[in-house]
Fold each of these.
Amino acid sequence: MTGTVYTETVVHLAPEAFAQDVPYQVAIVTLEDGSRVTGRVAGDRVSIGDLVERVAMRDEVPFFQKAASQLT
Amino acid sequence: MRPVAVIAAGKTRFGAFPDRDLRSLAVEAGEKCLKNGHVSPSQVGAFYLGNFAGPSFTGQNHLAPYISTALGIRDVPATRFEAACASSGSAFFHAFSAVAGGLYDCVMVAGVEKMTSQPTARVTEILAGAGDCAGEIKAGSTFPSLFAMIARRHMYQFGTTREQLAAVAVKNHANGALNPDAHMSKVITMEEALDARPVAEPLGVYDCSLISDGAAAVILAPADCARDFTSKPVRILGVAQASDFVALDQKPDITTFPAVRRAAQKAYEMAGIGPRDIQFAELHDCFTIAEIVALEDLGFVERGLGGPWTESGATARTGEKPINTSGGLKSKGHPVGATGVAQICDLFAQIRCEAGEMQLKRHSLGLAQNLGGSGATCVVSILGNV
């Protein structure tokens, strides 16, 4: 599953459940069908407009990574 | 529909009060309000309470009669309204509807939140309950992060800058320094705002409103008998509530809030005026970007120009459209459930020329905008003595 980053942020202050992950990046991704989903970013930080692909589902949360074609 | 007026207002200071419980704050605001309007508890025909998360913050539930009976208001309907940060704005809208419709002749609307008894991580978790817990929150979003994502997109689409966001914080802190009831009466510089510890990029600590305790109350009555209570009633010229998706990722465009636009349009129509006529406003600056988006959605400035307009000084207390002369949520404080009614108290004081050092020269027509969550509820109220 691939998509485009619609917006993103890096979270520094989190509830206890995610405290061990900070800082972590959250992004809203526009999928190919035009729908949007909120997920976490794995690996390199992404920016608005970046192509991303879903690399994992953990506890129903999609994890996205910059698409291979964009990696430098 | 009968014309309705606000005849009395009262509120506590906002701040962190470790030795005060939720009920004592609400009772203080309610008693001040009754005294301000020379109203006896037996005259109050219904009690409307705005509260977001009292049960989570304090363990206490069934809050409306818990507070109304402590105020000596007995037997009448006492109901709590929950609409995230717009809880007491929503209570105000529904109280207005009941008085305008002829159901009651005297209604108290109060708002309260007691937040500081919990550590920040737990507060963040409780506030996140106003988002979509099965989606965005599960993915690690917090409220600051939702507004951070709005800020990022606004910057991307319109070129809004980090400095323009900080200009909102600098202005509201300067305003709050004149407010003796503000949580944080502290002037900050642009450098301090820009260098602050990050919370959710691009937002730093000074882009975020405060975690506060506090309460506020007002009393509504039909306009034709308002002068039985006070020589200076303030008319509710327009008020409207609108709703939208809770999850940010369901909104087609996150740089504008349709609920704000709809509520504003209805309130302007009811009042028979437009955005240009508004002389001053209290806006829901839960985050600096929220004030910028509100300026645009309320029609004070064209879309995308909220940042430059703020930077130009137009929204300062000396500007053409003073915004958040109370200090706003940013500096006055944001006891979530109290905020909507507290904004009404601020308009009431300005319009009656009782705002002390905060008093504006042009003060006869004001607007309050109270936002819930990331835009799923909005209440817009227009008050005046015209």
Amino acid sequence: MDIFLQQIINGLVQGSIYALVALGYTMVYGIMGLINFAHGEVVMIGTLVTITVAGTLIKAGMPVVLAAMAGISVSVLVCIALGWGLERIAYRPLRNAPRLTPLITAIGMSIILQNLAMIVWGRNYLTFPPLFPKVHFELAGAHFTAVQVMIVLVSAITMGGLILLVYRTKLGMAMRATAQNPAVASLMGVNINRVIAAAFVIGSALGALAGIMVGSYYEIAHYQMGFMLGLKAFTAAVLGGIGNLAGAMIGGILLGLIEALGAGYIGDLTGGFLGSHYQDIFAFVVLIGVLMFKPSGLFGEKSGDRA
Amino acid sequence: MHAKLSIVALSVAAAFALSACGQKDAPPPVAAPAAPAAPAAKPEVVVKLGHVAPMTGPQAHLGKDNENGAVLAIEELNAKGLEIGGAKVKFELMAEDDQADPKQGSIVAQKLVDAKVNGVIGHLNSGTTIPASKLYADAGIPQISGSATNPKYTQQGFATAFRVMANDVQQGKVLGEFAAKQGVKTVAIVDDRSAYGQGLADEFKKAAEASGIKVVANEYTNDKATDFKAILTKIKSTKAELVFFGGMDAQGGPMTKQMRELGIKAKFLGGDGVCTPEFMKLGGEASEGNYCSLPGMPLEKLAKGPAFKERFTKRFGADIQLYSPYVYDAVMVMVDSMQRANSVESGKFLPEIGKTKFDGVTALIEFDQLGDLKGGAISLYQYKGGKLEYVETMGGSAIDLAKSEVKDAVAAVKEAGSAVAGAASEAGQQVGKDAAKAGAEINDAAKAAVAAGADAVKGAAEATKAAVEKK
């Protein structure tokens, strides 16, 4: 029984990371109808920038707390700039193009960012500097660390903050209006360009935070880590209903739990036929299942059915 | 609605296609004319040797290390200015990237075959070497691998397939026996489902079960994974005493870290894939105290080892990761065969490779009829203080073992000699009757020390003689 609790904890932590990244996908899709495949790479760059900044500062003798704060701030800023740049350079010119074009551009930007990261940071796996205290907890036979607790907490707080933003502020109202109908929203005086830029900026900031969480959790990073993570987070967003914020959060956590429990128990369930190396298939089986049986996801699409 | 659905489905298909393509970062091959230059004093011939290893991806550091070994060998050979078959020979390396992916490995192998290379050093991973070996065998291009340890590589029966280190049958056996020697009763086996990882884990399982160890779990991952919490949690519930991992350091390092985080007290044992500085870097403190194995003997104990290490570090400014000494030897063996056959054509020097008896950096290299190294040894190491500490060597040729023992004995005698010198200088400072007394004592001690040293050398020499006679 104690490993069931352990698997739940593993799944929750993994799921929180997916949820944070999925929010970036869902916000952009809700407003623009574009799946930003380069978002996984933004997360990866967030991690690598933190490694460089915090790592150099720690080596230079700065206390870990200050270096961590500096690293996190710089990486969030870099990712915000990157997200804004992506929108401005790659997506805005294609605002009125057929739907497929920005999609292909997104994939292209993803490849460009991966290779840029490979050139700048090299091909090897890099070690993430330990920014958070290594404290161990034990609860009913399950082990978890301070980093894991922090990941869940930070995710919860940021997601709460985002819900507040979208439902209680003027910017949030503008975003919801643009998601419903951009033409009418602009007629009502909403600056569409600023709203879209804001969506990218906020999504990228969340992505940077997710990148820092992933780096602290696994303590390694490399230029290709964003690809799989992005795909799974996208699956999580689809699972929850892409375009729906609460859906992305719940979808992310649900996907994390499914993966953890699935990988842990698949050997037993199938009598050894399928082993735990099929861990990655859960995300994609879920994706296929959702698209086949309930394409609008668990919580349906956000208002604005632009068929 | 349908438009959105198809967009989503298309994008997922595109993502899958992306993952299949990956990053194509193969460096352009060094273009070299095969025709000899305009006749000067002697005709010049360019010999192209292909080298394949993962230059991008999680094992890029190992691929670069291999390439460095090959580059060092080629530079030294070119500096010697060899003459083969009446022509001055210039060696060139065609370095390719197979990304540790069997599909990519075959594509690159075909590329080298089409470029009509004289020989191939590689590949690095067993998973890519085995499918590529068929292509080289069909083209008659000799292939010597410095790192592919899966037994199937030579069991295919290709006349062109060779390797310069022990294979996983020996490695798995040694690891299994070592685990039993350490008193382990239960083991959980994890492998990365690559040809190498799976092969090694299977051999280890056979040996462990034969030694009476119970295998309580079989878990799997892949060679790109970073998260092992799910399978480690499952292993934790089995309360295994030892976790054996068949795979590479890019997975092994984080795995030990996550084992520590989950509170798993079991020890970690791995093969040559995790026996690298990179493993200790990625695993951090969690890697301390665990064991791994490497083919061959530690470089410091080999006659040419320290000199090679010095040349390597001077040339590249980097530590030896894992296989570069073997790749270096592989190049040397291939060129040595060319010299003995007095020809650089694959068809002519291929038969000579089988008759090799070459004193390389890593061992005295001789091949058996399948192309495996004769008398390959496996050494066990422990991770201590961020370094690999040598534990013992099992298997292997008696000659190599005896040679290293002689080397140890000589070092011991040298130490004894310097100790005597030190004692003598101390005694020289004493005056009066003490001097005479001390002198007599030193005389006795010296006699005893030299006698002991001589006995050690004699004993080692006798062992060598016995080994030679046995052979």
